[in-house]
Design a protein that fits this description.
The protein is an alpha+beta fold. It contains 2 helices and 8 strands. β3 (22-27) and β4 (30-34) form a beta hairpin. α1 packs antiparallel against α2.
């Protein structure tokens, strides 16, 4: 059976390089699945859960924060701003990330800081939602 050459990369390192049956990417316009022979595309990535399937089962799941996905007929590369294995992140860690973002927003002294705070809070909430949804399906 054909496979997709998948790479998950952050600015500082490559997190995963594997031949997968399918990859599901949280695209900005909605989740999309990548199978061998997929039409070429480039998409932005929104905060959410990226899943790597082998044999019809999600073998690896990652929380991702923004970035880009490039897809060809044989390859899928996700360049993520931030990514972490779903299994390595607790609900408490994400709750603390949200509290920190709320505090940063409350303490914002100018428009740029306020914009960063709002983005950080939005990402924290999306990650908590995505984690809860992914764990409810496991």
């Amino acid at each position: 059976m054909a496979k997709v050459d998948f790479r998950l990369v952050m600015p500082e390192r490559e997190l995963l390089a594997v031949d997968a049956d399918m990859v599901v990417v949280p695209g900005s316009e909605g989740d999309f699945g990548v199978l061998p022979g997929h039409a070429p595309l480039i998409s932005t990535v929104r905060p959410g859960v990226l899943e790597v399937f082998q044999g019809g089962k999600a073998e690896a799941r990652f929380l991702v924060v923004g970035g880009f996905a490039e897809v060809t007929g044989t390859r899928c590369t996700v360049l993520a701003e931030e990514a972490m294995a779903l299994a390595d992140v607790s609900a408490d860690q994400l709750a603390e990330r949200e509290k920190t973002a709320e505090r940063d927003l409350a303490e914002a002294g100018d428009d740029a800081a306020r914009a960063r705070g709002e983005r950080g809070l939005s990402i924290a909430r999306e990650l908590r939602r995505a984690q809860a949804f992914a764990l409810s399906r496991a």
